[in-house]
Recover the amino acids of this structure.
């Protein structure tokens, strides 16, 4: 039975208008994006299949073009649309960080980092560069590694901080393993970067580890 034949209160679009987007399941939200299903499957059925295939919305968002387009009913046009939606979300969250003090809006920083780093298959080390009022100037993925580690060079971090004339920085990297707990190497790296940046009067405000659905803050743990 097609979605148009469902009770009005159960149709994703009508449900969103009546009860708000938060009332919808992942599959229902995705169904609104997909708009139509395929022969024998409604948009919701197809959305459920996609979520199950990739394990979660995060897994779907991280899928390559080849993986995404391999699903019956998907194609390059839908892949492009999805990437555009994700990029708009990233930019909106980045604007939130630019417009306010990053220390006073940790939710915006967390949301931005999770959208950027969750589901990545390799370790990525990135830096958010901040001005004297702790507003975001820029964010860059500086180093990419393997499933379990990446090499970070303090000299390059210092160079980029000076390039952006940053007064402070926030570090972030992901753990593809899904475990957010910092390793001894993570702690030593943070301390080393903090010392290197102190020489050029750049403060390290925090270091986040994104893993699975979690996002751990070194500052909240008293480790910065």
């Amino acid at each position: 039975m097609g979605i148009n034949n469902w009770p009005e209160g159960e149709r994703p679009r009508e449900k969103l208008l009546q009860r708000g987007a938060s009332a919808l399941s992942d599959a229902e939200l995705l169904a609104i994006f997909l708009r139509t299903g395929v022969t024998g499957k409604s948009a919701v059925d197809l959305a459920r299949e996609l979520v199950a295939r990739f394990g979660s919305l995060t897994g779907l968002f991280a899928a390559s073009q080849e993986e995404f387009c391999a699903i019956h009913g998907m194609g390059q046009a839908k892949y492009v649309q999805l990437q555009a939606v994700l990029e708009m979300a990233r930019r909106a969250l980045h604007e939130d960080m630019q417009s306010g003090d990053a220390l006073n809006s940790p939710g915006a920083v967390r949301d931005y980092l999770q959208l950027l780093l969750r589901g990545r298959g390799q370790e990525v080390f990135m830096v958010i560069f901040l001005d004297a009022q702790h507003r975001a100037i820029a964010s860059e993925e500086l180093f990419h590694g393997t499933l379990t580690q990446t090499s970070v060079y303090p000299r390059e971090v210092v160079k980029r901080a000076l390039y952006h004339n940053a007064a402070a920085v926030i570090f972030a990297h992901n753990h593809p393993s899904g475990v957010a707990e910092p390793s001894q190497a993570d702690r030593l790296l943070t301390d080393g970067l903090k010392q290197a940046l102190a020489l050029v009067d750049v403060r390290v405000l925090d270091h986040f580890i994104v893993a699975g659905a979690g996002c751990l803050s070194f500052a909240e743990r008293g480790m910065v």
Q: What stands out?
A: The longest helix spans residues 76-99. The mean pLDDT is 87.
